[in-house]
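Appendix B. Chain record.
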Amino acid sequence: MGFHTQMNQTMIEIPIYQVDAFTSRAFGGNPAAVCPLGAFLDDKTLQLIALENNLSETAFIVPLDNGGDANYHLRWFTPGVEVALCGHATLATAHVVFTHLRPELNVVSFQTLSGMLTVKRDGERYQMDFPCYRPFPYQTPTGLGAAMGAEPLSVLKSEQGDRDLLLVYPTAAVVAALEPDLNALKAFAPFGFIATAAGEGGTDFVSRCFFPNHGIGEDPVTGSAHCVSGPYWANQLGKVALFAQQISARSGDLWLELQGDRMLISGQAVEVMHGTMALP
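Structure tokens predicted for this chain:
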């Protein structure tokens, strides 16, 4: 049973959940806020809510009953901007839908700025059907290596957009040791930065993600980044099923499967908080 937006003479109360995505433990993975609404508030208010939450992403959903394929309209906001695609907040939203709002569903569909996205239950995980953004070589911007704290072996960019650059490093240890100058990285707007390297043991590849141009320093676990890094490593390793780890301080685990022009991204989620937010 879900919450509903309520209003009295002095304030609006909206439901809010906080969910740690791409982890099986509380305080790991990437926290996202999820706000189910009866109708979208104005964009300025949505942005202020995301800023107040001060998480890398706040997701807002509104149920759809228009005879179409989608169950909900889903939007994502960082503390600074609305974004076109977010993995961990989609995973967190699906967890809220399956746990609280529509527990009878095994598949939920979202209408988004990146088209129709579906998430299905997959045992203890949720599997998201996301677009595949194959990256291609890109000329390294002057000064980027210095701003990152280490020169990458190569730089790639997806042809589908200009949001992120994929920076390939020689080892996972180099990626783990990066201490980028976040203010210096702002000079390379509008890009975000996915630092990646081959993994070790049972991990196919690792990554860390930095998005100071989107109001996020280091993002703990970034599902959408694997729409770019996943196809790259699938090609490099000659396999379509991959296990990836984002090696931020919170860390996260992602299971990937390349299917043509789609990337299936699976992970777990843990709810750590729910309540209401009061708006004047």
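Further analysis of this model is presented in Appendix C.
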